[in-house]
């Protein structure tokens, strides 16, 4: 199994994969904001939510659904800012994962990653990291 990467490239590939995996897990987990509502613990992120209030029309009252899940639709995400954050953070995670998987393939396939491809991948990775970090931190 020949590699087109140097030792530094192999380390970069594995660290890239670990960072991309951590970003994707963070994106899918609903624990960005924690709090309480109607005396129940609630949490939500851009993509998922846990323990959320729902209007029960038969009893004409608000009840808490104590489970985790995705929003029913893209429009169900609470605000336009959260929708934008979802798209940008998801795009960043996708770019990070794309570069990480390409780099890992470069560990196994010779002549896959040249100096130019490595620089382009680094630029894409920077862009993906910027999208994930800035939006995730509310900047």
Write the layout of secondary structure elements.
Elements: H1 7-28, E1 33-37, E2 40-44, E3 48-56, E4 61-70, H2 80-108, H3 115-136
Antiparallel strand pairs: 1-2, 2-3, 3-4
Helix pairs in contact: 1-2, 2-3
Overview of the structural elements:
- Keywords: Membrane, Signal, Transmembrane, Transmembrane helix.
- This is LHPL6 protein.
- Residues 1-21 form the signal peptide.
- It comes from Peucedramus taeniatus.
- The chain crosses the membrane at residues 87-109.
- By secondary structure, the chain is α+β, with helices and mostly antiparallel strands.
- It has a domain at 23-107.
- 53% of the residues lie in helices and 21% in strands.
- The protein has 3 helices and 4 strands, in the order αββββαα.
- It has helices at 7-28, 80-108, 115-136, and strands at 33-37, 40-44, 48-56, 61-70.
- Strands 1-2-3-4 form a 4-stranded antiparallel β-sheet, with no helix packed on it.
- The chain is elongated, with a radius of gyration of 20 Å.
- The mean pLDDT is 81.
Keywords:
alpha+beta; four-stranded antiparallel beta sheet; 4 strands; 21% strand; 139 residues; signal; 3 helices
Question: Summary?
Answer:
This protein has 139 residues and is an alpha+beta fold. The chain is built from three helices and four strands, in the order H-E-E-E-E-H-H.
Individual helix count: 3
- Low-pLDDT parts are none
CA gyration radius, whole angstroms:
20 Å
Relative helix content: 40-55%
